[in-house]
Each structure stands twice: as C-alpha cells, then as structure tokens.
Amino acid sequence: MTPKVSKIGVLCSGGDSPGMNAGIRAVVRTGLYYGLEVFGIMRGYTGMIEDDIFQMDNRSVANIIQRGGTILKTARSAEFMTYEGRKKAYDNLKKRGINGLVILGGDGSFRGAQAFSNDFDIPCIGLPGTIDRDIAGTDFTIGFDTAVNTAVEAIDKIRDTADAHDRLFIIEVMGRDAGYIALHSGISTGAENILIPERKTDIENLVASLQEKERRKKLVNLIIVAEGEKGGAEYIEQVIKERIPGLDTRVCILGHIQRGGAPTCMDRVMASRMGYHAIECLMEGRHNVFVGVLQNRMNYTPLSEAVKKKQRISEEWMKIVRILSS
Ligand code: F6P
Q1: 320 in a structural domain
Q2: What is the pLDDT of residue 3?
Q3: Do both 55 and 81 map to the same domain?
C-alpha cells in the first residue's frame, strides 16, 4: 500500500460517548503500525484552532480502552463554523505537516469536517461517535450500546419502586432530535408508551390508552420520553395529572449518566474496528467519508451525504411497541 498520508491528527468533537477512547486507541495504534506519525488534538476543533496538539505514541493510549469519556476531551466550537476559524486550524496543521484527520463525533462534527475539507486539501475521515445513533449509513454508533444499557439498568430499578407503589413513572432519556435510546430502552423494559421526536405524540390517544388500561386494572408503570419530545417528561406528567388525577405519577430524568461509564464490549469492538478502518481509508487515499458498519460490513458514506440524512425510525417499530404493551 502506498500511503497517501504521513502525519495524521485525531480528535473528538461534540458530545462525548463511551467507546471514544477505544476508537482513539485503534486510530493511534493502527496509524503507528503503518508508520504514520499520529497527533492528538485536544478539545476538538477548539484545540485545532488554539494549537493544542501533541504527538502520540503507543503508550499514549495504554489503559484507556475500558474508560468512558475521552482522553482528548471534546468541545463544540462556534469559531470553527467560520472560515477564519478553520483557516487558523489549517495553519496549525500545516506547520506540523499533518495531512490527514480522523474525527470522532456526531453529525455536527461531520458538518465541521465537511466545511473544513471544502476549504482545504486535508482528507477527513469521520467515526460515528454519538450515543444518539441518529446517523444514516451505519447500524452502530460508538456509545449507543453503552448509553442504552445504562438507561435500561436505571429503568429496571425504577420499575421495582414503581411496582411497589402502583405508580406511573415518566422517564426521560437522552436524544435531542432522536428517539433511538427511548425506543430501545423502552422496548427492553416493557414500557407502556414510548414518546419520540420522530413521531408526533397524540396526547388524546395517550390519555385514552392509559384510561383504558386503568379500567382493565392493568398496572401501567413506565412511559419513556425522549428528551427531544416537546416539553419532555415534565410536560407529559402535567397533562396526565390534569386528565387522570387518580394516577400517582412521578418523573425521573436520567440525564448525563447515559453519556458516561465503561463502554460495553459492543462499543469497544465497534470503535476498534472502525478506528482501524479509518486509517485504512486514509492509507488508500479515501477522503471525506465516515466509516460505518451496515449489515456487518464496513460502509463508507460521504460526509456531504451524512450531514443531510438522519437515521429514520420505521412505523413497524411503533407497531411492535403498541402490540407488546397491550
Ligand atoms: O448528542 C448526544 C447528546 O447526549 C444528546 O442526546 C443530548 O441532547 C445532548 O448530547 C446534550 O448535550 P450537552 O448536555 O453536552 O450539551
């Protein structure tokens, strides 16, 4: 293989996700294996602009595969959204001779990479690092499996106390624009209803279904609401309290615990595999794609497409939820 790059930078951008460290480790070790020089860029695009960049070796990524968060830290950079910001970042790469980038992040981070590669001749390879699993072109995103398992563990515990008191819990999980964490955690904990931003919630329907279950004396104790759902869990509780005053309800917002913790085996393996392929991409001269896995095969989606499309949730999923919670 004739390498198309000789010095590469790796960075994390946007919200962190468990497994990012495993991804960084794979990028660094595969890069070094192929004789590349590898540089860590701290705090995402902010570190690129501020020249917070250091050379990495095999030891830089020792003992991190099991750790949540990211050793490179992460940030959202407004300055990188401007040409002037990107130019500063480019100058910092140029002076070190860095001629390839690997970016771990979600669609916002890919948008930054896309803009950067439009302006300057530096190939960018994305790795889908987000707990939201909302990127089209991959069945997995690094961190989703850990986040959803964290949510499931918490919801199982809530179910115990909900059951003990015959209470209805409305539990809010993460996902600003995406309902995947809600959908998967809701199905796997047997929730009555799952409310997600991809589907407009019919409040009348929700209230009617709760009333009907109340008549049947079916104990209803879990509703899962994605953060991005209008008004979140608190709004849903308010409506239910007004309409069905007899129901004893509580709200629990799981929040950022879903973003931390040791990555699952799935996230570590996916991140390792994707990190390895990111380097293969750079070595082969691919540019401006993100590395995904579709039906267990590597899949490369142009960043320009990735920033336009979202992962969709099919109607069949909602049907499964309705049938199984009856
Ligand atoms: O994109 C991941 C995510 O955790 C979303 O689910 C959530 O809306 C957002 O990040 C919260 O980000 P932060 O609290 O870091 O601003």
Answers
A1: no
A2: 59
A3: yes
Confidence of residue 229 (pLDDT cuts 50, 70, 90): confident
pLDDT of residue 141: 97
Q: What is the pTM of this model?
A: 0.96
162: CATH: 3.40.50.460
Place of tokens 């960049």: 53
Total of domains in the chain? 2
- Whether 60 maps to a domain, the answer reads yes
Asked whether residue 314 is domain-assigned, the answer is no
- 151 in the same domain as 121: no
pLDDT above 70 (res 183): yes
Query: Ligand 1 centre and the CA of 136: distance in Å?
Result: 18
- Token pair for 85: 């910001």
198 Cα–ligand 1 center, Å: 17
Specify the residue with its C-alpha closest to ligand 1, atom 11: 15
CA of 225 to the centre of ligand 1 (A): 15
Q: Are residues 191 and 300 in the same domain?
A: no
Regarding whether 177 and 100 lie in a shared domain, the answer is no
Q: Which of 133, 184, 227 to mutate to test the pocket of ligand 1 (most atoms within 8 A of CB)?
A: 227
Buried b or exposed e, range 154-165, using 16+ CB within 10 angstroms: bbeebbeebeee
Q: Is the domain of 67 the same as that of 163?
A: no
- Torsional class of 252: left (φ above 0), alpha (ψ -120 to 50), beta (otherwise): beta
Whether residue 133 has its Cβ less than 6 Å from ligand 1: no
pLDDT over 90 for what percent of the chain?
86
Residue nearest to atom 13 of ligand 1 (CA): 15
Tell me if residue 132 is catalytic. yes
Ligand 1 contact via 179 beta carbon (within 6 Å)? no
Residue 325 belongs to a domain? no
- Cα gap 201→108, rounded to integer Å: 26
Is 257 near ligand 1, meaning CB less than 6 Å away?
no
